[in-house]
Amino acid sequence: MTPMPATAAVRVRRAELSDLDDLVALEEHSFATDRLSRAQYRRHLDSETAQVLVASANHRRFLGTAVVFFRKGTQVARLYSIATRAEARGKGVGSALLDAAEHAARRRRCKVLRLEVRTDNDDAIRLYERLGYQRIGHYARYYGDGADAWRYEKALA
User: Can you tell me whether residue 87 is helix, strand or coil?
Assistant: First the structure.
């Protein structure tokens, strides 16, 4: 597989049923625990309270995904999951997915986007902080494997 050029224009769209195999495959490659199942992805694709996003560039139709949850009665959206293919890391895919997640939250009239991240995921933490997310909490043994998490949030203009 040839590497993706750093200058590729990343496009983000809402995921479709035809993306289901790619969504599940990326989930399995990206996370050892706390994975979304095929059934969960299928449910989220049609949900009013979730949005599944897919990033692509340069004829590569699936480079990453993000899942955003919306809860009725609150103006806080939650970035539940974000993952990129290994060859797409550092190429703007994560930034494009976060931008699209923030845009989706604004369209739902949300004022804040929150997320949790493993305390040992330095690359993701750098990305979130570079994009204006502020650390607001710590959760001991948050993940299924016992890893701790930081909670971040960003106020949406």
Answer: helix
